[in-house]
Automatic annotation (TrEMBL):
GO function terms (MF aspect): nucleic acid binding
Spans through the membrane: none
Gene3D superfamilies, per database record: Ribonuclease H-like superfamily/Ribonuclease H (3.30.420.10)
Biological processes, Gene Ontology terms: DNA integration
A Pfam family recorded for this sequence: Integrase_H2C2
Protein name: Uncharacterized protein LOC115878918
Domain Integrase catalytic: 131-283
Naturally occurring in which organism (per UniProt): Sitophilus oryzae
The gene coding this protein: LOC115878918
C-alpha cells in the first residue's frame, strides 16, 4: 500500500516488466518486483550467503509515517543507539530513500536522547592580548613552559643508564615560532642556563609570559636583584640608559589557571606529537 501511494509510476512499469524513467529517484537502486508484488532493491549479491531480505531489502519512502515508525521501533529496540547503528539494523530488511537523513530527523526528536545529551553552554572567548596581534620581532613576546620528563639513555652502548631530563619550550606569541632547549632538572639555575642559550640564538626578549613554577619565580627574582644593582649605577647615566632599554618584563598568569597559557600549552602538545612519532623508543 505504501509503495503504491509513493511509487505508483515505478510500480506500474515494473509490474509490466518495463524500465522505469531515467529521472526516477530509485533508478540507481536497480529495483525489481518480488513474488509478493513488493519493490525491492536490486544489486550484485546473488551469490552471497546473506538472506534474501538482507540482499534485497524492501524499498520505502524516507518521509512516510511507516518509515518513521520503523525507525522509532529500531531505536527503542537498540536502547537508543546512534544513527549509524539504527540505519544498519533497518537496512537488513528495509531500504528507506535518503535513509541517513530520515534516521537523523527521527532521532533528533527523541525526548530521551535529548535529556541525556543536552547542549552545553560554550564560553565566549575574550579579546586576544596585544602581544598576540601586534607585529613584532620573533620572540619579542615569549611564552615559556616545560614538558614532562623523559628518560634519556646516556653513555656508551654497554654502560648506558637512564637519565631523567626535561624540555624547555620557548614560543613566540606573535609568530608562534618554537625554540626547544634540553634541561636536566627543574631548578632555577638550570633554567637560567637554558635561557642564556636561547637568548644567544634568538636574541633578547622584552616580555616573558610563564606560569608560577618555582624555577620561573626564582629566575624572575634573580633578574630583579640584578636590576636593583644596575639601578644603583645612576652615577653613570650612559650605562644606566643602556641597561634600562634591555630590561625584561616578566608576566605571570594567575595561579592554578593553565588555560591562561594556552599558547605555550599548545606548543608543548605539538612538540610531543612529533617527538613521539620521530624519536619513538630511541630515548
Amino acid at each position: 500500500m505504501v509503495q503504491a501511494l509513493e511509487f505508483p509510476v515505478e510500480l506500474a512499469l515494473l509490474c509490466q516488466s518495463k524500465s522505469i524513467h531515467k529521472n526516477s529517484n530509485i533508478l540507481s537502486l536497480d529495483p525489481f518486483i518480488d513474488k509478493d508484488g513488493l519493490i525491492r532493491v536490486g544489486g550484485r549479491l546473488k551469490h552471497s550467503s546473506l538472506t534474501f531480505e538482507q540482499k534485497h531489502p524492501i524499498l520505502l519512502p524516507g518521509k512516510h509515517i511507516l518509515t518513521k515508525l520503523l525507525i522509532k521501533h529500531e531505536h527503542h529496540k537498540c536502547l537508543h543507539a546512534g544513527s549509524q547503528l539504527i540505519l544498519a539494523r533497518l537496512r537488513t530488511k528495509f531500504w528507506p530513500i535518503n535513509g541517513r537523513n530520515a534516521v537523523r530527523s527521527v532521532l533528533k526528536n527523541c525526548l530521551t536522547c535529548f535529556k541525556t545529551n543536552p547542549k552545553t553552554a560554550v564560553q565566549k572567548m575574550g579579546d586576544l592580548p596585544e602581544s598576540r596581534i601586534t607585529p613584532s620581532r620573533a620572540f619579542y613576546h615569549c611564552g615559556i613552559d616545560y614538558t614532562g620528563f623523559y628518560n634519556l639513555k646516556d653513555g656508551k652502548s654497554r654502560t648506558r643508564t637512564l637519565v631523567k631530563c626535561y624540555l624547555c619550550i620557548f614560543v613566540c606569541l606573535a609568530t608562534k615560532a618554537v625554540h626547544v632547549e634540553l634541561v636536566s632538572d627543574l631548578t632555577t639555575e638550570t633554567f637560567m642556563n637554558a635561557f642564556k642559550r636561547f637568548v644567544s640564538r634568538r636574541g633578547l626578549c622584552r616580555h616573558i609570559y610563564t606560569d608560577n613554577g618555582t624555577n620561573f619565580v626564582g629566575a624572575h627574582n634573580n633578574m630583579q636583584d640584578v636590576y636593583k644593582i644596575l639601578k644603583n649605577l645612576n652615577d653613570n647615566e650612559k650605562y644606566y640608559n643602556y641597561f634600562k632599554d634591555h630590561i625584561i618584563e616578566w608576566h605571570f598568569i594567575p595561579a592554578r589557571s593553565p588555560h591562561f597559557g594556552g599558547m605555550w600549552e599548545a606548543a608543548v602538545k605539538s612538540f610531543k606529537h612529533h617527538l613521539k612519532r620521530v624519536v619513538q623508543m630511541l630515548v
